[in-house]
Design goal:
mainly alpha; disordered N terminus
Length: 934
Amino acid sequence: MNNTAEGGRISAWGGRSRGLALALVSAALLSACSDSPEQMLASAKGYLSNNDTNAAVIQLKNALQEDGSLAEARFLLGRINLQQGDTAGAIKELQHAFDLGYARTEVVPLLARARVRAGEFDRVLADFADVKLDEDAAQGRLLGAVGDAHFGKANVQEAIRSYQQALTLRAADVEAGIGLARARLFSNDPTGAEEAIKAVVAHSPDNGDVLAALSDILLAQGKQEEALKALEEAVRLSPNQVGYHYALVSLLFRSGRYEEGVKHFEAMKKAAPSHPSTRYLQAFMDAREGRLAEARDLLTQVLRQAPNFLPAQLLAGSVLLQLNDQAQARNHLNTVLSRAPGQQLARTLLITSHLSSGEASRALELLQPLLETQPADARTLGLAGQVFLANGDLAKAEDYLERAAKAAPEDPRARLRLGAARLASGDAEGALADFESASTMDDSAIQADLALVAAYLRRGDTEKALEAQAELERKQPQNPLVYNLRGGVMQARQDIPAARAAFEKALSLNADFLAAAVNLARLDLGERKTEEALARIRAIADRNEKNAEARLALADLQVATGAAPADVLATLERAEAAAPGTMAPALAIIQHHLRNREFPKALAAAQKLSAANPNDVRAVEALARAQLAANETQQGIASLNRLATLRPQSAVPLIMVADVHRGAKDNAAAEQALRRALAVQPDSIDAQQRLAGLMLERGAREDALKVAKAVQKQHAENPAGYVLEAEIESAGNRWAEAASAYRQALERRSGGDVAARLHSALMRAERKGEADKFAADWLQRQPEDLVMRGYLAERALSETRYADAVDGFEVMRKISPDNPMVLNNLAWAANQVKDPKALEYAERALSLAPDNAAILDTLGVIQIDHGQADKGLANLQRAVSLAPDLAQLRLSLARSYAKLGRKDDARKELDMLMPKLQENTALHKEAIELLNSL
């Protein structure tokens, strides 16, 4: 077993004496610079025989500088690199040795092992799975590496087969024996795992790694006493091996045998008093006993000694969260996840932190890897339900909260969270009783009341939500979260003065409570008080230069208010300086450059982030997106494949690969990627939807329908399979069949988007009366459905029923008064009927979404119609600059130039536009007609 703490080992040989020794060695080597490459190689081998690795490396590099074709020098340097943990260097040199024809029995096993350590499992399997070597010992070592590659891809049975073959050839192979034991444990065969590891113990009884692996396997079977004895034996055999002490004390602590753990810890302190692992365990004990400041200070020392010691990073994150130092806590937790994406506690703490700050989308992003591991514990399931609830995904929230309740039926918090989801999705009667009983069971907690407020809000019952919030105030009158929530309730009641008062109360309790400040800033923007909004967030950021979250919130606000890109970047760079090494600011900078189409800058920033965090899925995904935006397609695909390796149980990276291939018109490669995705996740709806689309494109309609039926079978209560069937039928103009499938989707809780598609299918099937009745019935049941109302209003626009369109968009504005796209569409329709309010609507829409190209286009056209030519053209030109590939915007600008008599400018825009238009499309015909009129 690898000792985690060893990454922080401090060499006892340091200071001036080491520097002098190295200088003398270097001088001796330089004096021999006239030797031939072969002599330098022989000298290096001599140094290696005396265990002088540093001198050997110098000689090997000198030899290769003179003659790069020395295969043995390449091999020896690669082997040293692998031993020293330089995986990239090992791969480079060993591959060179292989290419130069070095003995396969020597180089192939090591090259395979190096690629395994680099996580290149697919490459190992592709290059080495079928390789046969002449010597049994070499073949055994190779099969052990192949087994590790299979294990890395969770191909457990294949891994076991490879390990068994390796042990047949080399019965005493420790690595293969440990690998076989761990693979059997992973495949839920603890008895077989114990048999395998005991076989290794039989021939290597004094190997500490074997005993540590034995301890892990015994522990998995609940044999705690035997596991402890195995570790105690490892400590007895190697009393100076800190890693075995550390594992033993940690196991005792985890087992609740705290006093016994402290006793063993004293022995560990005698063996290595200043070792990072020793100091870490002392910090753990301090934190456990409430000495948080002492724990923080000790952890600072530990991380100065061993910055890659992840347990200390994790504990530091937990301690700093308790000390309310959110920025530094997140810094440590993000460091853990960048190196160990599967560390559940770090991820859970981060998710909780972001949820408490109202950053629901970030919490959801962090949650996804947890869901891909199919967690069964109630805490994770409940947390997932809360995240989906915060993001407004009621169906998934109900699913996860129900599973949480089943996993912990006696947990009142699980019951109350389930009630929240059920109430939000319409099952009010049964849910409220659960909430009220949960609240009664634990009067000191506020989770039940929070769930009640959220559920009533989603139900639209703001009166009851306010009553539940008042109960929160009674329980925790000094909690700013309570008043921030009250502000949200008052906003839902459209009582803006009361909402503002509640948010200000939250800030009076904690001047740095960011969520309340952001909410107040949004109210300021709604009242066109841009400077006041910016000042609120800037004040929090300026009070604490380490508050990266405040800087990020300020940058978001700057973007929303149309600040210059340079100013936004300056804010993001200050956020990065506030929390150096963290992911969020770096990702925001990459997104900033992408948004501003500064693709080389985005790529450079993404490459830097990925180099610093090569195993962090967010960094790798950001690199892939930047590479694709910069037209480095093959590199982007390579990064996505790397992402797939990091997330072996997720279909998402492979779906992204498929999307890239499809965008490049390589449908065969796209289909191959989708089938790989489905091999990973057979019930992936996204992958199956795309696969059906590819089948339709090549005319395989029946195959596409089989995919839709499979989705329906896998997800019987999900409307997605029926929507997919309807889309397939629609593609063949089988409108009656499409309408039938859409109706089945609606029976499974589909929303307004499916309702709109059903209406369209009925209209195309020439069943207008049925379509009109369906729409009327739907809106009577769902009067606030903006999707269906928007569809009907857009349909009225396309049919030049402008008065009906105005009426439709006006109803939508009353439902959602600050929705910029509703205001945009209302402005366009109102302008068609010469309503003077059109300009006011468009200006309001732009104030809410200052960088939206469609809104800029609408406002520009209306301004020109109202005689404001200069303003109108400026907005139209900015719209084109924000979305240069959107043909409709450039045609709109050309049409406006023509209307103002600027024919040359109109021709110039059309000249740029025409090559991009497909012939015989509506836009192409409009452009030709305009060109002919000039």
